[in-house]
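Consider a typical record:
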Amino acid sequence: MPVIHNKRCKVCNSPHRNEIENLLSEGWGTKRISVWLKETYGEEISDKAILNHKNKHWNVAKEIKKRAAQKESEELFEIEVSKGLSRLESLKKEREENHKLAEKLRKIFFDLLENDDWKRLHPETFKAMQALYNTATNQVRYTASEEFKQLDQDTEDPFVKLMEMIANDKRKTSNDSEEAERS
């Protein structure tokens, strides 16, 4: 607690302020402290002045409530931050998984088209694969957009940022692949 010092408060200006506050903390009454000060040091401070100091400048109960509320607020804040980070990590993981799925499907499509194997597929199978590819790419866009919102980033043109994220993922994936090949 910051020590409050009031120029007009007799207790704040007393050379025995610490002793007065110690007595208050031990549960002494203000009248008893006033009498003790006069008998021990010849210092006259009324019980009302001591009570005023206790309530305004040395209010332990008020400070406890204030700090408890602050601690509760900080704990709640930390919980919310943890939730946000967890949500952000989930979004990133979901985006990465959908991106991998879309890349695999894209490769399958190109292989099918390159080898003319798509002609042997049932049309509904091809449509289902196409729908799955569209869903995966849409989910990549959606989760990227949600990540930007979570980070309070400008989502005015999320597609540009999405392409940057995908490019970064590709670089990371290719680096991982190169390392795996070297092993």
User: Anything to note?
Assistant: Residues 68 and 74 are 10 Å apart (CA to CA). The mean pLDDT is 86. Helices lie at 17-25, 30-41, 47-56, 60-114, 123-150, 158-182. The two ends are 59 Å apart (CA to CA).
